[in-house]
Records
---
Amino acid sequence: MTIAAIIVAAGKGQRAGGSVPKQYQHVAGEPIIKRSIIPFLNIVGADNVVVVYNPDDHDLYLQATKGLPLPPPVAGGTTRAASVFNGLKALKNSNFPPEHVLIHDAARCLVTEQEILDVIEALKLGHDAAVPCLPSTDSLKLSKDGKTIESDVDRATTWRALTPQGFDFDKIFNAHQSMDTDQKTDDIAIATEVGLNVALVKGSDLNFKITTARDFDLANHILTNKQADMNQSDQHQQHLPDVRTALGFDVHKFDDGDHVILCGLKIPHSYKLKGHSDADVALHAITDALLGTIAAGDIGDHFPPSDAQWAGASSDLFLKHAAKLITDKGGVINHIDLTIICEAPKLMAHKRAMADNIANMLNMSADKVSVKATTTEKLGFTGRSEGIAAQASATVYL
């Protein structure tokens, strides 16, 4: 599924003090907004991150986000909800509106990647929305006038909502469009009012919203100690190379046809392979292996079968995309090992050409690509000649 992120950074943050809005102030040497954006760049990609800001702070924004490959920011509104809706409208009017969206407060600069991934996983499971939460630990009291206590509140049933909050894009867009949201303090309040199904996922104590001067002190303390720990760890591990190995596996069944495509080569056969793209089972397995080396999901995350633009697509596009993601992280593909499993067609005469073709696609030496073919001795679906399976391993140096 396609996922975008909106970083809400249009407020003034006056309670925090300082000469500039809090999102542009620094903690542990970096602007708060920059620290908030980077985890989302790592997970959803720069093209899918929308920052909503106050145009009056344009110079501050440019300085704080210098070096980040972001699209142009979107002007915010007079309220938080209006700013979020401006971000949603920008995504709606883009060339490829997302299926899901994450909405995050720029003032939460210690958000963890695990929280982001947990919210995404809840959306993948079919929930309309998801929110990271922490259980209430203090005794809670109800006071309507702020002067006297009226009653207790059962803390066992109360939770502190954090961000990012994730949503089915169309449903949260329609909710914003159909109701007065100005008094809502977060988007989950909007979602629950229109009856969306909201999943609760575990949040992190570190993911607090910087609001006061004391919060700055706490964030500085946490990040400074974290960096010191990382530096100490680096001293112990700097002599060790970062070598990644991952596996990929794919299956496609046969359909009526006169050839199969394997490793980008057209090989005559009494059937073809059935699939949304060209069904190149070998390149699909290698692509998944490459994505695995950088923990970037699987081929379906990047090229969903539900997307019509990939119908009949040549699978070398998928392979080269995975290779570019590795290159963008400073990685080098060192070795590919592929095994194709089928009774027919016979592949002995094609293995060298397959290896050469893979090497050309990945701009690597052919002696670092291994292609093997085997059967399952007439056992299983491949033994019954119902389709072809492929498994691959990839080794990458980062």
---
Amino acid sequence: MSEFTPTPERQKQILALLAKQGRLSISEIVGQFSISVATARRDVESLASQGKAQRVHGGVIAIEQAPPELPILERENEQSDEKNRIGLAAADLVNDKETVFLGSGTTVLEVARNLRRNRKNLTVITNSLPVLNALAGATGITVISLGGMLRESEMSFIGHITEQALTEIRADKVVMGTRGLSLEHGLTNDYLQETLTDRAILKIGREVIIVADHSKVNRISTALLAPLKSMHTFVTDAKTEKKFIASLKKQNIKVIIA
């Protein structure tokens, strides 16, 4: 194949190889397609800018697309052990007398369940119906629920009414989940309208804590939520890739392994 082959076609073939091997070096691309190093690098940069691959030193690696998100009630048993440990570790970051915002999702729900233990004068704000139910009647916790349009699959309130309410409140800590985390593409979700609400949530907290198990790492989903630097603390499990953790620490993001 000559270097003059149309770039989109060559990039499709590079992606096909990447899907089989998981990683390609620049030299492998040069040899496979009989192109120059400069052209190989341009193809790799183009694929990275499109979110189809991740540029690494000396080559490129595949990015796993996050699968379509199942309804919350169907996700509770996914990585349940990891979520239980993450929920406990994240709950331990919340102090008595603080105001904390809890977002939607199964991992954040585990945080809520663990907050019921011996809390004093804690205020929890949420747009999640499962979180609201988990904390109803909990001793020492005042619960504030935001209204809005109910997204039934996630059982969360989103949209203009929710976002308007968020302009009136502030929290010491915000605890949220996300569908995907990528060093190049940051935090991503799969539903744009909820992502807009989540962006508004991120703005109200002095400290942002993202909770996600290893299956969400090095994945990207449809809608950009925020860059990685928008979070102060990342709580995850021991199966999360060490290189990813090291990169977060270099960005002064605290990482807690549950």
---
Amino acid sequence: MGVYGAGNSGAAVNKFVAPALLVAFGWTMVPQVYAAIMLGTLVIFWMFSHSEPSHRVPSNTKFSDQLKLLKDPNVLKYCQYYSIVFGGYVALSLWMVQYYVGEYGLDIRAAALLAACFSLPGGVLRAVGGWLSDKYGAHSVTWWVMWVSWICLFLLSYPQTQMTINTVNGATTFHIGLNVYAFTFLMFILGIAWAFGKASVFKYISDDYPTNIGTISGIVGLAGGLGGFVLPIMFGALMDLTGIRSSAFMLMYGVVWVSLIWMYWTEVRRTELMGRRAPACRRRTQAQAPRNDT
């Protein structure tokens, strides 16, 4: 799943291809070139892929029965995690170019290059996140991913600020805010963290639902896709409302808080992750009845 998810690196490639086409040939050329690439991908898939019968569910399995797992609180929790690590990744990948242009006054090509510092590791390193999740467990990797995200988003949320202090020698003005280099570095770290998180969330699914990975990963993936669609709209609405560009990171910071609290009450308290003994977190499978303690 980590190797599969590394295809997200296409979001970074887009940062190089789309601006170059836009500048050289105009915006109408962008969808034409992408349509040709999609057609080529379709032909390659048709010629070289095949179906694996052992991966199919039994013929008597009803789709409605599989969707009953939407009532499982764990599924909803994983949806919430993925709406951050994937939905947030997609949303910020779309948002970063115009953020660099508006916040730091860069031209579109330089902005696209720096934005790739976030989106490229966010895709390529997903396979590494899958390996870490296999070795250390989905819970440990996701917990630390959320904390790294919390720190980065806290710093990214602070808007450019001019502060004037009256001293004995007169008024002194200070500027507080991230320059373009510090901002890009934090986005790079955030991209790495979310690459690991995208893999670790799917490791949860393979651990908890080994006989129903298809449906559950589809539901969780849907939550991530919705996050990637809804968050840019919310980013724009918040900027219109507050006039602060970094309000996008303030929103993501709040969403990460929800994940940390949810994870602590449902998982961390029952593990030794915090350095104290507690009952081991009971892993569950599809055959087990849903717990009510979440």
